Amino acid sequence: MTVSAWRIAAVCAITLAGSVVLANGSSPAAKLSATMTIGSTYLITGQTGTIHAGDRRATGMVTLTEHWVGGSRQIVVHRRTDSIGRFMLRIHPSHHGTLRFTVATPDIRTTQGLLQIVLDDQLAPPAG
Asked: Is the pTM above the cut of 0.85?
């Protein structure tokens, strides 16, 4: 499964796998965790793989589960893939803290990520 994700706050982006594109156009190394601000959107896009060699890409439901550290786990999004296994999910955090998420796809795979949600003034300025 290929998964990429973008965090959008005034058009900022972060990926789970692939390249990261920030509002200033820079692209730091890909990572499975990110820091973002309240009110930002984390956009996850991807495409499923196959279950058996030689099969077409798996299609069906993709599930996004969120778990706030110190809180409960809940399923927040169910989306169906398109006919070639592509999907898109969004995370809109409404409060600060640490958010773990899992994306489960119909090719019987899961991808996990960690978002640290902070207030605008807690984001560190870019190095350089």
From this structure: no
